[in-house]
Amino acid sequence: MEKLKELGVEVKTHMSTIDKEIAKIIEETLTEEKKEEKREHQEVTQPIEEREEKKAVVLKPRPPVVTVMGHVDHGKTTLLDTIRKTNVAEREAGGITQKIGASVVERGGKKIVFIDTPGHEAFTKMRARGAQVTDIAVLVVAADDGVKPQTIEAVNHARAAGVPIIVAINKIDKPNANVEKTKRELAEIGLIPEEWGGDTICVEVSAKKGTGVDELLDMIIFLAEYMELKAEVDVPAEGYILESRLDKGKGPIADVIVKKGVLKRGDIILTKSAYGRVRAMFDDKGRQVNEAGPSMPVEVIGLNSLAEAGDKFRVIESEKEAKEIVEAYFEEIREKKLATKPKKLTLEELLKQVKSEETRELRLVVKTNSQGELDALIPILERLSTEEIKVKCIHGGIGNINENDVMLASASEAIIIGFNVKVDPTAKQEAEREGVQIRLYQIIYDVEEDIKAAMIGMLKPKYEEVILGRAEVRAVFKVKGGKVAGCYVLDGNIVRNAQARVKRKDAVLFEGKISSLKRFKDDVKEVAKGFECGIGIEGFSDFEVGDIIEAFEVREVRRTTL
Question: What pTM does this model have?
Answer without folding.
Answer: 0.56
